[in-house]
Design goal:
alpha/beta, 3-stranded mixed sheet, 15 strands
């Protein structure tokens, strides 16, 4: 029998197997004793299989690919929780057992689950249900522990917080003075960018010994920790460590930095070509930013920044263009290309295999829901097991739908109604759909220098801009 070994060590450090190497050795010896053949070895280290884990399992995905390729008849593990703590994943494997040469799951203690029989499937479901229950108990236990620690004012751990020594209980006076200095500068009207520039020029490092950026400075200054406050799920408790600034100053800093975003000093991400537009002089990506003009109005711009978020030299700072004009030009060029029926059809067809696979997966999930009801009717599952299984299958169906949405071309071209043109669909679409469509055709947009006000351009949208379209070059994808 052709066997694949799967080994996993979770972040919870289960004690039944020390590490993936030990598990692999145990599985290899077991397979040799049976006279079978090891065709693949897959592993995931420091990754939980719990439904509460969000880490991907690359080794597990490789295992599924080998099963789909018809290379595996038996999966060998040291114990079922190494493979599954999610019922929906077992259901996926059960479906593969119906369409591939996969026959069974076997553990090194001699237990096996024959996926071709009702009893084998029932036993596998029971084993995973037991693992799910234990995972839930572990999660609930950890949540209670964290809640109790928060109420007692204990720190939640993690990396050394800025302003404190390792452990977070003793104030680092040099760093505390920096926090107070930054607070005073902000209260005096200085900007975060000026402050991080000053810190970096002085050679002041972060807690991890790196450069300062606006984001990590604001994370420090808006943290309730520096005011001696422990937070947990939106609630606040007095911490068991000394405060660096007062609670009042903390409230004021949080309000001040939040107001910067409200007032437009941080513009929302409403730029159609973010991360696609480049400077024609220095080659750096242009940033998306708002500029205040007369009357308090903010005008969207693509600009080459001379400094990065840490205040250090970045680009040439010599290119600025009105975002609306650049977007109108690129939009018209893309839609003009997509007016070609042959191009749109070819692009649709290029994504058919992926879309088809996901649709087949979705159909299989819906079929599984019907089969679960039949299993309940036949007594294979009780009411509680049916409810639990239905929940996980329905969750899997939602994830499949989300994956369909994330396939850019599937969400763009394939979603255009047959009775509509691309232009008509564009007018009704949101910005995410439009960005996806542009990214299918455009590799990048390069903006070159031009003389301000040298030309007026009437865009297809009927508006006129002080803008020279000849100074914008679109690099098309092959």
């Amino acid at each position: 029998m052709r066997c694949a070994i799967y080994a996993r060590l979770s972040i919870e450090r289960e004690s039944s197997s020390d590490n993936v190497e030990t598990q692999i050795e145990e599985c290899t010896a077991y397979i040799e004793d049976q006279g079978w053949q090891v065709v693949h070895v897959f592993s995931d280290s420091d990754i939980s299989a719990s439904k509460y884990s969000t880490k991907p399992r690359p080794g597990y995905e490789q295992l599924l690919n080998a099963v789909r390729a018809g290379e595996v008849e038996c999966i060998v593990i040291t114990e079922m929780p190494r493979l599954y703590r999610r019922l929906e994943e077992l259901l996926e494997l059960m479906h593969l057992a119906e369409t591939t040469v996969l026959k069974r799951i076997e553990t090194t203690d001699g237990n096996y689950y024959d996926l071709s029989t009702g009893m084998g499937v029932h036993n596998a479901v029971q084993a995973v249900n037991t693992a799910v229950l234990e995972s839930r108990r572990t999660s609930d236990r950890m949540k209670r522990k964290r809640r109790a620690e928060a109420k007692a004012g204990k720190a939640h751990g993690g990396m050394r917080p800025y302003g404190y020594e390792k452990g977070g209980k003793v104030v680092n006076h040099d760093e505390a003075s920096i926090i107070c200095e930054c607070r005073d500068l902000l209260f005096a009207g200085d900007t975060p960018l000026n402050i991080v520039t000053m810190l970096n020029l002085r050679g002041v490092p972060t807690a991890q010994g790196k450069k300062w950026y606006v984001r990590n400075l604001e994370q420090v200054l808006t943290s309730r920790r520096i005011a001696g406050i422990r937070t947990h799920n939106g609630s606040e408790y007095p911490g068991d460590w000394p405060a660096i600034i007062s609670e009042g100053d903390s409230d004021r800093l949080r309000l001040l930095l939040r107001q910067r975003g409200v007032l437009g000093l941080r513009t929302p991400k409403i730029y159609l070509l973010s991360h696609m537009v480049y400077c024609g002089i220095c080659g750096k990506p242009l940033s998306s930013s708002g500029v205040f003009v007369k009357g308090g109005r903010t005008e969207r711009k693509y600009r080459c920044k001379a400094k990065d978020g840490s205040g250090m030299p970045y680009g040439c700072g010599k290119i600025v263009r009105t975002a609306e004009a650049v977007e109108a030009l690129v939009t018209e060029a893309v839609l003009y290309r997509l007016d070609s029926t042959d191009l749109a059809t070819a692009m649709r067809e290029s994504e058919v295999p992926e879309i088809t696979r996901l649709m087949e997966e979705y159909s299989a999930g819906k079929l599984k829901l019907r089969e679960l009801v039949e299993d309940y009717a036949s007594g294979l599952l009780n009411r509680e097991q049916l409810a639990q299984a239905k929940t996980v299958v329905e969750d899997a169906l939602e994830r499949t739908k989300a994956r369909l949405a994330r396939v850019e071309s599937g969400r763009t071209l394939a979603s255009i109604p047959i009775d509509k043109t691309v232009r008509e669909a564009w007018d009704e679409a949101d910005i995410i759909w439009r960005r996806s469509l542009i990214s299918l055709l455009v590799e990048k947009v390069v903006v070159y220098p031009s003389r301000p006000g040298s030309r007026r351009w009437e865009a297809p949208n009927g508006k006129t801009y002080a803008f020279d379209p000849a100074k914008v070059v679109i690099a098309w994808r092959a």
